[in-house]
Amino acid sequence: MAENFQLAISHDLAERIRHHGAETFPHECCGALLGRDSASNEKLSAQDGPLVEVPREVLGLFPLVNRRDDSPRNRFAVTADDVRDAEKAARGHGMEVIGWYHSHPDHPARPSDFDREHAWPWYSYVIVSVMSGKPAEMTSWRLNDDRQDYSPENIEIRNRALA
Amino acid sequence: MAVRVIIPTPLRVYAGKKDSADVPAQTVGEALGGLTTQYAELRKHLFTDDGKLRSFVNVYLNDEDIRYMAKEATPVKDGDVVSIVPSIAGGNSGK
User: Which pLDDT score is estimated for A51?
Assistant: First the structure.
């Protein structure tokens, strides 16, 4: 049974991902999502509302350089050193790397087989479609345990970060 | 002789939520084999069906990438630390 995954992100950070995709068009952009996951079962109190359970929230971005010089229009790559840098940056802010984002220039925001072969479960994989240079649909996905498919993750855009 | 294998956050759910495991081993390959024997669910996320390390899975021995050493045959000694770090790749299926 598919789980009901939820990823919260502020409007500003979502816009930064979309802007990154437009900036690098027609090449793919990529970066790390820094944040916190609800494994800690934290409940944060919104100032003007009831207790809100934070499922998983993006609290910062770590934009990276696409290392695929050979086919940057339809591939992206982040080296292990980049991953370690992103993890270090996350730790420095009391966060962790909760996922990755990349763009699909002139292509729908759906994960490809190539994406699936190079993914791990748990991470959130955000994809922004950039059509003719303009950011379009943004989606998020998590790889299933059996590695055969992804489950969609609902993106909740918040006007401000809760943490 | 035991080495400590650091388990990356995304895979801890397959390893009893542990962040590391101490595994008896003579080589990096044995350490990874021991880890995935202990936690069988980890195996498919590290290795392909034919037993090769997945292309995006990188292994470090005390901060050195084993690709520049003897790969999985790299010898280990007591107290060494083995880290598993993904490289991230993807892209659209077109073109």
Answer: 47
